[in-house]
Amino acid sequence: MKIVLELPEALEQHLHEEATRLGVSLNQYIVDRLTDKSADQKNVPLTEDTLLQKINLEIEEEEWTRFHALVALRKSAQINEAEQQELTSLTEKIEAAHAERLPYLVELAFMRNVTLSQLMKDLGLNAPPLLYD
Hints:
Elements: H1 9-22, H2 26-41, H3 48-55, H4 61-75, H5 81-112, H6 116-122, H7 129-132
Helix pairs in contact: 1-2, 2-5, 3-5, 4-5, 5-6
């Protein structure tokens, strides 16, 4: 089966870097990540509620607020080096959380018999442009 995902550029870059670091193709890295999460859960059927809990990002509200403030500083070209490093760190944390929840999104989409795109739309998970531009 072929699935096409549109990922934020920064997340795609992160996945490429991890695949390169491990010496595997991007496709193989993503398949391995999805398979690993699925394998962990094979003996324990997950309910829709459990999947939704796992899909929720564990990013604190203060971190989101700071992230958006730093993005605004960057857009206005007023960000200093320390703030840029902080923004990079927060971006990596957010993108890692997005990558961690992907297998659960796939499983919930399968459970609901909808496409991944439709599920994300239903859950309001389309990233706002401010987040990644």
